[in-house]
Amino acid sequence: MTNTTFRYDSSEEQESRALLVTVQTPDIDKQLAKYHQSELKSLVSTLGMPIIDSIIVTLREPNAAFLLGTGKMAEIIELAEELEAECIVIDHDLSPSQQRNWEKQSEGAVIDRREVILQIFADRASTREAVLQAALAQQEYSMPRLTRAWTHLSRQRGGTKGTRGEGETQLEVDRRIALKKISRLKEELKKVIAHRDTQRKQRRNLPVPTGSIVGYTNAGKSSLIHALTDADVLIENKLFATLDPTTRKIVLPGGAEVLVTDTVGFVQKLPHNLVEAFKSTLEETKYSDFIIHVIDAAHPDALNCYKTTMEVLESLGCQDKPMLLVFNKMDLVEERIHLNSIMEKHEHAVFISIKENSGLEELLEKVSAILSNVYPEEIYLFPPDRYDLVALIKRNGSILKETYGDNGITIHARIPERLKNSLSNFVFVH
User: Fold this and answer.
1) Mean pLDDT on 278-305
2) I need a surface site. Which of 135, 174, 184, 215 has the fewest CB within 10 A?
3) Lowest-pLDDT range of 222-226, 269-273, 360-364
4) 166-201 b/e (C-beta count within 10 Å ≥ 16 → b)
5) CA distance 182 to 179
6) Domain boundaries in the chain?
7) CA 423 from centroid of its chain's CA atoms
């Protein structure tokens, strides 16, 4: 391989052609390895890199210097030279020293799965918070890699679009610049996150229940919000199409309203620092009243997609929240056998096809059922001269039905806990 700098920017006239290497460790079988191989292809394609070939190699014991054995490493480098690949992408985390060793031996660019995901996040971030989160994750990833022989800070992958400066040649100066960038990014993030917290508190003070839509990347979360609300949200058949949470209002059968938030999609082996970086975004789920977990029913490894999402939810402390499991893309499923192990834990799951607009009414009914437990409907009977109490509920609660009769005003409503005592004398008794 010739000495070359890996290019991330999609605006470049020529992209580095990649050889993909999936590592099959003793704890995964051949089928799962093929799935990892397929997912790596999707990740690299999302990044915009041409894929020249993709191989699977077995790893019995990790090599401290290269991860893989020296013989296998030599075979891969030789294959990359034959195929004229400018970049080797390894579907496994490489330590900074392992990455340097690979690049020294290959005289070219060698990146790991984590770096691919970090760059996808950086490329697809649009709001200020997402841009800052992605930039911070990249900088922290790049810090221990500043000694790489083929690049320095002026060409660091840790920089985001428009932030790559002239750089310095001295390692210590590079480190100082990187540390300053990290410190500045953290300070900016504090301000942005504080603003988001204010918005979240304002929503929590509203009497409208809130839910979060979660799931594996590309499962159809944004499509679901669009189908339920006709909202103008980004819908793409790409991994991590949505990084920034989108909150929209859904009207349930009977007229009740609920706010739902689309969240960043998950992926197997999602870098820990990215989970940490997007914690403030994912915390929309933590403060929600319920969760809609969307699964791509046609995915060849739906079970592991489900497990991955559940692991992230558990890390956020959300595993015990009321959850509605939604199997999407049922129009592509011929039989449900591969879904049985998931369905055993979620007997009230909903099967939908957003493409064919099927199952959505049942989904809304199931959401209504969840809310009836989270926010029980109360019925009040107020005297005709106590419209002030009706106004109180309108200001602080959610009125589902309002009826005027000879005996007074009958109100079906969901109200905050703080109001229940003051209205207890007016609870309607059947």
Assistant:
1) 82
2) 184
3) 269-273
4) eeeeeeeebbebbeebbeebeebbeebbeebeeebe
5) 5
6) 206-374, 378-426
7) 42
Best CA proximity match to 153, nearest among 144, 137, 141, 164: 164
Query: Which tokens hold the place of 384?
Result: 């005709």
Site of tokens 């890390």: 315
Taken in order 62, 63, 65, 69, the sign of the CA dihedral is negative
Secondary element (H or E) of residue 188: helix 171-205
Tell me the pLDDT band of 55, cut-offs 50, 70 and 90: very high
Contact 185, 136 (CB under 8 A): yes
> What is the pTM assigned to this prediction?
0.70
Q: What is the DSSP string of 12-52?
A: SSSPPPEEEEEEE-TTS-HHHHHHHHHHHHHHHHHHTPPEE
Q: How distant is the alpha carbon of residue 336 from its chain centre?
A: 26
The answer, yes or no, to whether residue 163 has pLDDT greater than 70, is no
Least confident of 8-17, 94-103, 131-140, 403-412: 8-17
Polymer length in residues for the chain: 430
CATH topology of domain 206-374: Rossmann fold (3.40.50)
* Interval 147-162 mean pLDDT: 42
E-strand spans in 236-349? 246-251, 257-262, 290-296, 323-328
